[in-house]
Amino acid sequence: MTNHSQPSDTHIQHTTLGRSSIGDRYSRQIRYSHIGLEGQNQLERSRIAIVGMGALGSVLAQHLVRAGVGYTRLIDRDIVEWSNLQRQMLYTEQDANEMLPKAAAAASRLRAINSSVTVEPVMTDLSSANASQWLEGVDLILDGTDNFSVRYLINDFSLQSGTPWIYGGAVGASGMTMTVIPHETACYRCLFPEPPAPGATDSCETAGVISPIVDIIASVQATDAIKLLSGNRDALHRTLFQVDLWNHAWLPINIDQARRSDCPACGDHHRYEFLNRQDRETVATALCGRQSVQLTPGVSAHLNLDDMAGRLSVMGQVYQNPYLLKLQLAGDVTFVLFPDGRAIVQGTEDSARARSIYAELLGI
C-alpha cells in the first residue's frame, strides 16, 4: 500500500531506523510521499540478490545500497579489467591492476558508502547447480548479467520459488527492462520463449556500449525495485520498457495481456528446463567486451590456490592473490584460475582452444 506520510525531521530521529544519523541519511527519501517512513522501514527489512556486477549491476547496487535496502547479495564470476572502467561505476584502476573479483571490489566500495546495511559478495558463476543456494532467502532478484542462459535460469527459479525478478539489458545505445511477478505478470519466456542462437544478437563485445544507456536501464530497474520493496507494487511500470538513447526513442510496451498459457515456464504445463539441467561438461562462455573465454566445470571443485601455483609455475610466471591465480602463457595468453575450478582464458575468442588449455593445465 502506498504511504503518503511526510514525517518531520524530529519524527525521523525516533523511528525504528535507530540513530539520528541513519534518519538523516534517508531523510530526503522519507520525505518523498510515496515512500515515507513505513516504506523506508520496509526497505531496511528487505533482502535482494544482484546477479552480475558489471555495468548494470554496479548502478543497481549503488542505488539500492544508498537507498537503504537492508541486505544485498552480489553474485559475479568475473574480475575487474581495464575495459570495464568506461561504464562500470564501482571500480577503479587499482581494482583492475590488482585483478580483484568484481563482487569483492564492489562489496568493499558499497560498505564504505553505507555501513548500516549488509553487503555479501559471492564470487561464483550462477548455474543450475547452485542457483537455489544463492538465490534463496531474498525478496527480489535483479538481473545485471550479459548472459541469456542465466536470465532463463533466474526466470525458472523465480517461478518455482515465487520470488520476483527484474530483467535488464543494454547494448550499444539501446536497452530494455521488465519486472516479473511470478504467476501474476508475463514471465521472461512468455516474451522470449527460447534463447537466441549463438551470434544471432548483438552484444557489447560486437556492438559496443555507451555508459549512459546503462545508467538509464539500471535506474528504471532500481526504481521498480524500490517500488516493490517499499510496498508500492501498484506503481510498477508493468511494461517491456525499451530505450534507444542515440535516437531519443522511448518505447514502453504494455504487457498486461502478454502472459501465455502455452509458455514453457509459467504456462499450463510449466517445466523448469534451465533450473533442472544436470550438465556435467565444462561450459565455455565468451565474455563481453574482450578476447576472453570463461570455462565453468560441470562439477564444482575446491582448489588450493597455493598448491596450484606451485604446480603451474613450471608453465610460466604466476601471480596470485587471495581470490585467484594468474598464469602467463606463451603467445600473449593468460590463464586465470579460481578456487571453484572456474577459469578465464584471456587472449583468445576460440572456445575450443580455451577448452584445450584448460584440459592441459588441469588434467581434465
TrEMBL record:
Q: Does the keyword Hydrolase apply?
A: no
UniProt domain THIF-type NAD/FAD binding fold: residue ranges: 26-264
Listed name of the protein:
Thiazole biosynthesis adenylyltransferase ThiF
Name the UniProt key words of this record, in alphabetical order. Answer: Nucleotidyltransferase, Transferase
The protein's matches in InterPro entries, at most eight in alphabetical order, are given as: ThiF/MoeB/HesA (IPR045886), ThiF_NAD_FAD-bd (IPR000594), Ubiquitin-activating_enz (IPR035985)
Identify a single GO molecular function assigned to this protein.
thiosulfate-cyanide sulfurtransferase activity
Q: Any transmembrane segments, and where?
A: none
| Highest taxon above the source species | Bacteria
Write down the species: Paenibacillus paeoniae
Identify the Gene3D superfamilies for this entry.
NAD(P)-binding Rossmann-like Domain (3.40.50.720)
What GO terms fall under cellular component here? Answer: cytosol
Pfam families in alphabetical order: ThiF (PF00899)
Give the family from UniProt.
Belongs to the HesA/MoeB/ThiF family.
